[in-house]
Automatic annotation (TrEMBL):
Enzyme class: isomerase
Organism placement in taxonomy: Bacteria, Pseudomonadati, Bacteroidota, Cytophagia, Cytophagales
Keyword presence, Isomerase: yes
Pfam families: Tautomerase
Name of this chain's protein: Tautomerase
EC code: 5.3.2.-
Source organism (scientific name): Rapidithrix thailandica
Keywords: Isomerase
Keyword Phosphoprotein: no
Coiled-coil annotated residue ranges, if any: none
A GO MF label: isomerase activity
Amino acid sequence: MPYINIKVTDENLSKEQKQQLIAGATQLLVEVLHKNPEMTHVVIDEVNIDNWGVRGTQYSEIIQAKN
């Protein structure tokens, strides 16, 4: 039973975008690993941008500096 965990920042992903991620990740496992899509589980975690860091800095600070 494959399990895929996708983590993204909580910047307004639409329901449609989430569905595309779920379908695309599932299809990738079907094509590459020959996994059964009926048994493939996908979870999307939306992480607050204060809890996401890049280059040693909170992502929220990077966004704020751009504005």
